[in-house]
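Subject: Interface between my chains keeps coming out wrong

I've been trying for a while to get a sensible model of this assembly. When I model each chain on its own everything looks fine, but I need the whole thing in one frame so I can look at the contacts. Pasting all components below, labels as-is. Any help appreciated, I'm running out of ideas.
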Amino acid sequence: MSDAAIHRKPLFGRTRRRMTARFAVAVLILIIFLFPVYWLFITSLKSAAEIFARPPVWYPAEFNLRTFAVLFKDGDVWAIYNSLIIASVSTVVAMVLGTAAAYSLARFKTGGQNLAIWIISQRMIPPIVIVFPVFLMFVWFGWIDSYVGLILLYIAFNLPYVIWMMRGYIEDIPIEVEESALTDGCSRWQALRKIVFPMARTGIFATAVFTFIFAWNEFVFAMILTRTEVLTFPVLVTHYYGAQSTFWAKIAALSVLGTLPVFFAVATLQRFLVRGISMGAVKG
Amino acid sequence: MTATTMRVGQRANLFADRNFKWLVIAPSIIVLLVVGIYPLVYTGIVSFQQITMMEEDTSWAGFMNYAALFSDGRLWESFGHTFLILAIALPIELVLGLLMAQLFLEKLPGKQVFIALLIIPTVISPIVAGSTWRLMFDNQYGPVNQIIGWFAGEPTAILWITRPEWVYPAILICEVWQWTPFMFLILLAALSNVDRSLIEAAEIDGASFWKIFFRITLPVIRPVMVIAILIRALDLFRIFDIIWAMTKGGPGSITETISIYTYIRAFKEFETSYAGAIAFLVIILLSVIVIFALKRVEIAR
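Reply #2:
Try treating it as a single job with all components included. I did that and got this:
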């Protein structure tokens, strides 16, 4: 024991040096991972001459907002607006339906383990496998290239995630609190409104943010089920890849516009990030 | 009646409302049936018919389309491409993620800021990620060739996107860049659940780093690690967006994955029935993995 105690002293200086080394490595890793993001951002701010300069320009001489102005003038930012509408509405509906279903699964064990597994397995199916029948169904209903079509599809696409996550968050609330409220004469709805929702508040918020991001970033469904009217931003980005020329400035600028909301969303999530991306496997 | 049995009896009453529990879950189940089951049934039926762009031939074709799958070289190549990407990207993401998690496990100034910034690649749209790397890899104006040129000491002009031997490294770099932070974040959370005092005791006893890792750390993080691998494996199996943004499956068909090939058959060539057969094959393959995977997740909860 005293041996270990003697060893402690010189170790301290080594820990400091190790800390500095680790910090240096951490900074290096951060630079590697963020450089592409930096490159995307500065490309959106470069002038045309700077984008097509050889050797590449590492930072623009001045922040040039002309590409963004062009996107606004040509109405291309409409795609951001479409993404916003579609992602927001589908998130709200999926949260309402999904939280109700999750409550049933968490508290009543409705359908047992198999129903829960069936629900989440719906999320594992590759979009490309189900998109063709959905495409034909939408043609039949006249939903191709419409808000309602994509919103309905995103509700269904995100519902399993919402149910799965919200079931976990509701299970985290001690059932005793709810029981005593119910025995004290609260109605089911009152117990939900006064106990379950407030206690699951942060979980509801985190799940909603993730659902929004999934809908915001989705590409395969959006590409196949839209034409010109309700293009979402990832689809419009791919339209800038021409057969003859590629509009790098527009690609970068629209990508930046489509990435900023995600930055803000993630900044609000910190504590729930791990649980959200690991589908609840890590309670964090 | 003792207090405990009374409580159990109450719980049975309070949470045994059959109408309520099915009422609140019904809307979700209906939505999932319409969007989950209907396409499967439809795809299943169509795959036994002979519908193409030219003719709406709904007559029964038996297993014709399925038999054709076996002689479709491009299909099996696309399977090969998909598994190649999966087999290379996943281990790299896992190992890099684990190393990074080890680095950030102990105290570090500004740790939370580092983590918040490192997660950025994972949360941005894969289309944006693919576009960003296509920009980075541009053979004339991209920074990647420039940086390689500095080290090589002479101007480099690697055709990353258009040369068969360079296109896979390009795609893999983008994929690894986007998803290593995902592994990192999950494994960091898992690692912080490992009892520090156990590791310190083993260190004092003179156990090697690897021995500590395999005997103490790995058993604790394994359940979470398995789930992270499964989530990534299922995502990689249906990889589409990144490759579509970078190469659209090209040059030729050299980077076509299962999802891209199915898309081309269904929506570019309108081989409805044949695409249906491919889709069904994919579903059968996936179902086995998914059920296995989900049982694991469910157990871990």
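Reply #3:
Confirming on my end. DSSP finds 14 helices and no strands in chain A.
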